[in-house]
Amino acid sequence: MSQKQEEENPAEETGEEKQDTQEKEGILPERAEEAKLKAKYPSLGQKPGGSDFLMKRLQKGVWDTISSLEPKGMSSIEQKYFDSGDYNMAKAKMKNKQLPSAGPDKNLVTGDHIPTPQDLPQRKSSLVTSKLAG
Amino acid sequence: MAGAGGGGCPAGGNDLQWCFSQVKGAIDEDVAEADIISTVEFNYSGDLLATGDKGGRVVIFQREQENKSHPHSRGEYNVYSTFQSHEPEFDYLKSLEIEEKINKIRWLPQQNAAHFLLSTNDKTIKLWKISERDKRAEGYNLKDEDGRLRDPFRITALRVPILKPMDLMVEASPRRIFANAHTYHINSISVNSDHETYLSADDLRINLWHLEITDRSFNIVDIKPANMEELTEVITAAEFHPHQCNVFVYSSSKGTIRLCDMRSSALCDRHSKFFEEPEDPSSRSFFSEIISSISDVKFSHSGRYMMTRDYLSVKVWDLNMENRPVETHQVHEYLRSKLCSLYENDCIFDKFECCWNGPDSAIMTGSYNNFFRMFDRNTRRDVTLEASRENSKPRASLKPRRVCPGGKRKKDEISVDSLDFNKKILHTAWHPTDNIIAVAATNNLYIFQDKVN
Lengths: 134, 453
Description:
The structure holds 2 protein chains of 2 kinds. Chain A has helices spanning 2-6, 19-23, 28-40, 51-58, 62-67, 84-95. By secondary structure, chain A is mainly alpha-helical. By secondary structure, chain B is mainly β. Chain B has a single domain (18-450), classed as YVTN repeat-like/Quinoprotein amine dehydrogenase (Methylamine Dehydrogenase, Chain H). Helices cover 2% and strands 41% of the residues of chain B. Chain B has helices at 288-292, 339-344, and strands at 18-24, 37-42, 48-53, 57-63, 77-84, 89-91, 96-98, 104-107, 115-120, 125-138, 162-178, 188-191, 197-201, 205-210, 213-222, 235-240, 247-252, 257-261, 273-275, 296-299, 305-309, 313-318, 327-330, 354-356, 362-366, 371-376, 382-386, 402-404, 413-415, 427-430, 436-441, 444-450. In chain B, the strands form 9 sheets. Chain B has a 4-stranded antiparallel beta sheet, with no helix packed on it. Chain B has a 4-stranded antiparallel beta sheet with strand order 2-3-4-5, with no helix packed on it. Chain B has a 4-stranded antiparallel beta sheet with strand order 8-9-10-11, with no helix packed on it. Chain B is globular and about 90 Å long. Residues 1-14 of chain B have low confidence and may be disordered. At the A-B interface, helix 3 and helix 4 of A face strand 5, helix 1, strand 23 and helix 2 of B. Chain B: Keywords: Repeat, WD repeat.
């Protein structure tokens, strides 16, 4: 049990460094990294763990996922899109395009005729047996 | 206890040497998204090993009986059953795609000849029954051998159907579907020691279910604030105590763990114990909260301790001491000076799991570059091993790996900048009693065993 009692301050690099290590390697790497990040994305908010960050995580959906692909520093205002049309319109406005393009495979069938279930593209087909079982 | 991987001393006590046993999965360079393994879990006896993948499929392996004529080949795991557990769905009301990725699999303790497991994706939990069929009835009165119905009026004699042996068939059937109880993404499920109930946790809520009842569940934790602007933390993992059926814990994105007792109130928003390691305020940085987020929490088999995994370390907590962990093990401390790029490529949000060995004397967790780390709690030694095809000769010993944090790289060391951050080992499992481990490396499942000395 004495081994465990020795572990008062077990790790060298956790948050609770002693005064000495603060000057050495403990804090400097993290702070240096923070400075690097702030230099790249000046508009990054002060509180990364704050509500807008978490909201992004909670509302992860099709169109929100796409919006989160934008550089993290720029989307500090969390935009939630109503549907694909909404998203594409917003994207079009940002890029100043005349005609917003629809999502990848969505418009293959609609427009000319009434689609049937057989016509629609399969969204995902993972009905193949797993290769682990091969 | 430097984080760069210990000396050549293997973990697990008794001079354990880990050897390659098997690898499952394809060798292609191009990995299909659906083949990425998302969860690995041994059952209570260790005879069955289940994996779930991003394509919603479950594959179960069974350990072969040890062959007396080949005493060196310990029981190997071969495919027992495979089925499509979840399929992609679309929530039309919210315009949200519901991924079929299996987030967690948890086995139920075996009560009869069949095996039961719970598997969950972001929204729906399913109870699967896996049963064997090795007999077939022949000689029905109302049916022909090919299944066609016979005309009842033509039947002049009765016969008793006989059971005849047939090739073993393993069938998986969904027995319960627990749906529509989670607004946010399910991150954990945990079977209670009462074997009747289980919990499911999403980002903001935890629900208690009865295994027999699918149309109702009790909400036992709700941390959703009245005003979402005030949201400061989310639930990241939850687990029932292994022996006390009234106790469970849940971890948060802020690095804290709350232990709740269901006897105290129906809604366990007020914790019974609150585990948090004090932080030195002067060491706080932009990354502090992100890397303190707990990605996994696991009780020890004894029920006396629990282990948490955050981005850079694994901590062991004594349930009787809330103000700090009793052990902290560095997994890959050399990444602290890479946090900026890890934030940019999103790796800083990777959710690593951790696991105990049977006697609770060793713990294991994954890292990058297909490395995984083991810590022996008794000898205080740790080792870094690699899951790779290069070390996949049968019973080949795994050589300890070393990462050079910076500066001069010694021979056989790999520098931090050469690490492949796409090769992440997020899911590992340890056999409940033996020294057999299953390590998921993207689309491949590695099984390692100890070499008997």
